[in-house]
TrEMBL record, chains A, B:
Pfam families: dCMP_cyt_deam_1. It comes from Actinophytocola glycyrrhizae. This is Nucleoside deaminase. Signal peptide: none annotated. Residues 1-112 form the CMP/dCMP-type deaminase domain. PROSITE patterns: CYT_DCMP_DEAMINASES_2. CDD domains: nucleoside_deaminase. The lineage of its organism: Bacteria, Bacillati, Actinomycetota, Actinomycetes, Pseudonocardiales.
Length: 141, 141
């Protein structure tokens, strides 16, 4: 499932954007929607990777049977999305280059798995080193 | 400033949507962007009132000089937005029909003002009583 999120991150990078991707799956492994950060491409600060995947999955009555997969630790905005919609599990590519709200989610009953994937780490390390201002804009710092 | 958010909520209701509106202002009172919940209108679950206002304000380098105004207590998703982007103040029309994450925001240094506005209360009370399923979908319950 992480491969889908990584493919989204790479697509975002190819578009000149911030290389973070995400995908929402059912617990059975069916892809509901995927997406990537669209700040640069659409001039839209509201579409982080997780919110883009959530949007692309369309309207659902509930999310109790879903898993959010993301290449990077979810920020407070995206962690709030997971908590509000009771998404029970988050698979995270890496939490080394950015440490968001996943500890808070775990404290509130969300299952968190961190893959410590070196492809994800390299995507962000390379991006942050060449685009620090854009990265800081994306996380409000 | 709350009047701008209420006008957005009324517009959403007139469109057949969920009557929650929001607006992002500078601390000096300049409107940066406003919006309303677009779940019904666009089939988009990612656009709550606050995230719609944030999107419509466009890209900004930082939010330290802004105020988020919303007709209803912000859910965890929208509270996460406020925290991640360091929006220092939130003005809330009412927190009677829904109690979101504003206590958590206050604990984390965000200034919270609750207007206890009866127009806002009536908008949501009437809406929830006639559309309970849609309302519960919007907050993931």
């Amino acid at each position: 499932m992480l491969a889908t999120a990584v493919a989204e991150a790479r697509q975002g990078l190819a578009e000149g954007g911030i290389p973070i991707g995400a995908a929402l799956f059912t617990t059975g492994g069916e892809l509901l929607g995927s997406g990537h950060n669209r700040r640069v491409q659409d001039g839209d600060p509201s579409l982080h990777a997780e919110t883009a995947a959530f949007r692309n999955a369309g309207r659902r009555r509930h999310y109790r049977d879903t898993i959010m997969v993301t290449t990077l630790s979810p920020c407070w905005y995206c962690s709030g999305l997971v908590r509000q919609f009771n998404i029970p599990k988050v698979i995270i590519g890496e939490a080394t280059t950015f440490h968001g709200g996943h500890d808070w989610l775990a404290e509130n009953g969300v299952t968190i798995e961190i893959a410590d994937d070196q492809t994800c780490v390299k995507l962000m390390t390379d991006f942050i080193s060449t685009n620090p201002t854009l990265w800081h804009e994306d996380i409000g710092e």
